[in-house]
Amino acid sequence: xxxxxxxxxxSTAVPLxxxxxxxxxxxxxxxxxxxxxxxxxxxxxxxxxxxxxxxxKKDFVLNNPVYSGKILVGGxxxxxxxxxxxxxWAVYDYGFRCVVSSFFADIFRNNCLNVGxxxxxxxxxxxEKIFTAVIGDPKTEIEVNLPAQSITILSxxxxxxxxxxxxxxxxxxxxxxxxxxxxxIKGEIEEFAANxxx
Length: 198
What we know:
Helix content: 25-40%
CATH topology of the largest domain: Aconitase, domain 4
Structural class: alpha/beta
Distance between the termini: 35 Å
Shape: globular
Strand order of the largest sheet: 1-6-7-8
Number of helices: 8
């Protein structure tokens, strides 16, 4: 399933300075029955966002109207726990296009890259700079430049590079998942197959 192309995003950010956020907190197991990648955003951080009677918890950051944007800034070891793809689906479906952390669980990182969410791993020092800037002024904008592989706090000019595999980078810039990529080189595959010796 193709997703939004990712090039450069300039957005305010939502700060979640909590370490060891696992996939069961991102999307509780009881919401994993659906098989399509839609509708999960409503239940992103469900147990942290809502009381048992479904009223919003006022002290949770996603319920704070001061914070908004396409970038979620999480604490160290974001996306740990089970390998459920639904956690990445929920992040994307909610509207986040980038998650920033000083450390990601590998499976969650890959699941994000497969659905169009860019996981940007930064140093702990740079993550702290982002938290300080965003919590100090929720209107602070962050620029995430995928072609340049850089993230910048626009109000301070602080910037840092991040790593991404060339294959996943190219897919995200084009809005491809793995199947879309194969479709994009279908002609090359057919030409190669036609020239194989019998």
